[in-house]
Amino acid sequence: MNEDNLNKQAKKLLQKYLNGQCTPEEEQQVIEWFYSFGDELPSAEEDSTDSLKRSKTVILDQIQREEDTLTSSGFFTWKRMLVAAVILVVMGGLLGIYLKSNNTTQTVDLAAVIPDSSGQYKNDIMPGSSYAVITYPNGKRKTTVDSGTDQNLSSSAEKGLLTIEVPKAGKYKLTLNDGTNVWLNSSSVLSYPTVFDSDQRIVKLSGEAYFDVAKDTDRPFRIELNGSVIEVLGTSFNVNAYTDEISTSLVEGKVKIITGQKETFLSPGNEALIKGNDVAVAPADIQKNTAWQRDEFYFDSDNLSEIIKEVARWYDVEIVNAGSLTVNTTYKGAISREAKLSEVLNILSSATQRRFEIDGRKVIVK
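Now predict its structure.
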C-alpha cells in the first residue's frame, strides 16, 4: 500500500473519528497508535524540516513492520495501518500543527486535534436550528421554524414593515417579494417593506446576513446598517454588522458602499471594513466569511476568545471565566455547526489544553 493510498484512507478515518462515527475499537486504536509513537518521535524543539523527515521515517518503518505481520487468517491488519496513516498525515503537515513566522504567536490546526472526551458535562446542548420571530405591520408576532427557497413572507401580509428577528441559536432563510434570497445568522434582525418602492429596494440589517440579490436595473437594492449604506443591483455578498465595525465580503457582482459623502466600490473577492465614515478595502477570505451559511465554524488566525464568542452565539450559552482565555495562540480549521456543544468543546479542549464544563446554559472555562 503506497503513501498516497494511506493518506486517502487516513483522511476518511480521521473524518470518521472527528464526526463521532468510529466504533469504540477504532477510537481506541487511534489513541493507542498516537501515543505509541511518543518516545520515538523527535521533539518539537528540533528543526521543523528535520523533525518532519525523522517523524515520517519512524512511522513508515512502523507501518512496514505492520505490513509484514499477518493475522492468523492471513489478512493484513488494515485498521491499524489506517491509524498509522492518520499519524503520518498529521506529522506530514497535511493536517498538522504549525507555527507562524511570528514567534510570539502559535497557530494550531484544529483538523489535527484528537477530541478530548474527558470533559465534565452536567448536560449537553444541541446545535442551533432554523428559528425566527416575525413581527407583522399590524404588530402581531409569530414564531416560525419554517424557511425555504420558495417562501415569501410578504405575500400574505398587509402593506408596511416586516421585521425578522433571529435569536441566539437560530438561523433563518427567507425570500423577499422581489425574489432576493436572504440567509440570516444568529442574533440578527432584518426589516423590510412588504412591497418595495418602484424606484428602490431598501432593507435594514443588524447582525449578519448573506444576500443573493435578484437583479433589477431599475431598482437598486440598498442595505442600511449603522449609518452606512450598501447598494447593489444584483449580486451575492455577506454582511457582518454585529459590532460598530461592519464588514462586507463580495462573492460576485458589484457593490457600492456609501458612508457620509464618500462612495467606495467593491469588486468580487474583496471585502470592505467600515468603521464610521472610514472604509478599508482588502482581499476577502470568502470561505471563512461565508462558512456559517454552510453550517460551519471556520477559523483562520482566530484566538480562543474570538472562537468562544462565536460558539456562545450559536449555542446560546453564557461563557463563565472568559477573561482567562489567552490571545497568544490562534487557531485555524473548520468545525461543523451541526455538532453538539460537547463535541465542539472536546475539540477546543484538546487544542487549547483548557477544560470546559457545561452547567445548564453556562460554559465554565477551567
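Helices lie at 3-18, 24-36, 48-67, 78-91, 286-289, 304-315, 341-352.
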